[in-house]
Amino acid sequence: MRLFSLTILLAAVTALAGCNFKSVPEPQVSARDAEWLAQVPKAEEDIRYARYLMDDETGETPGTIVVDTKQRFLYYVLPDRKMIRYGVTVGDEAYGWTGTSRVARKAEWPNWNPPAEMKARWPHVHPMQGGPANPLGARALYLYEGNKDTLYRIHGTNEPEKIGLAVSSGCIRMRNIDVIDLYNRVDLNAKVIVR
């Protein structure tokens, strides 16, 4: 059994090596970030959803964010036909959202005020100040269509074990260190395509 597991692991590593994936260094974090990140529950990272630099497969202009809800990946397009791929949690079928929007606002350790629809589904949810227990995590990118808030966000999470699943209420969740990395790269008014 051990030999079989080792063979599968070697096959996976070999397959990844041929895909031109390159890991992306961790972003620098502030003292507050480091302190609060240490308080978020840890989850074993699935290498399929790790942060990788790779050849651009989107064809979009640099600075664009593309979310593939079926594959559970977010792509940030870089110059020189490269992109960074991040693993994400997406909305389950009942709450999924697709469309084109823009990043109208960015926030560090944002406060959370659940929308009315969420409060109706889960009466126990209530507004929370930013911090390690907050479901929005370390950073949030607020998505607007024109000047209208979609109420959808790209944000961190206090449930990193759910990366790669379709269990959110429509928002795109990322590991906190990944959303910090993306936040540092993304400009206001960046185009966001959710497929």
TrEMBL record:
Keyword Coiled coil: no
Keywords: Cell shape, Cell wall biogenesis/degradation, Glycosyltransferase, Hydrolase, Peptidoglycan synthesis, Signal, Transferase
One MF annotation (Gene Ontology) recorded for this entry: glycosyltransferase activity
Active site (record annotation): 155 (proton donor/acceptor), 171 (nucleophile)
CDD domains: YkuD_like
Gene Ontology CC terms: extracellular region
Signal peptide positions (record): 1-17
Annotated pathway: Cell wall biogenesis; peptidoglycan biosynthesis
GO biological process, one term: cell wall organization
L,D-TPase catalytic domain: residues covered: 63-195
InterPro entries (alphabetical): LD-transpeptidase, LD_TPept_cat_dom, Transpep_catalytic_dom
Family statement drawn from the similarity comment of this UniProt entry: Belongs to the YkuD family.
Protein name per the record: L,D-transpeptidase
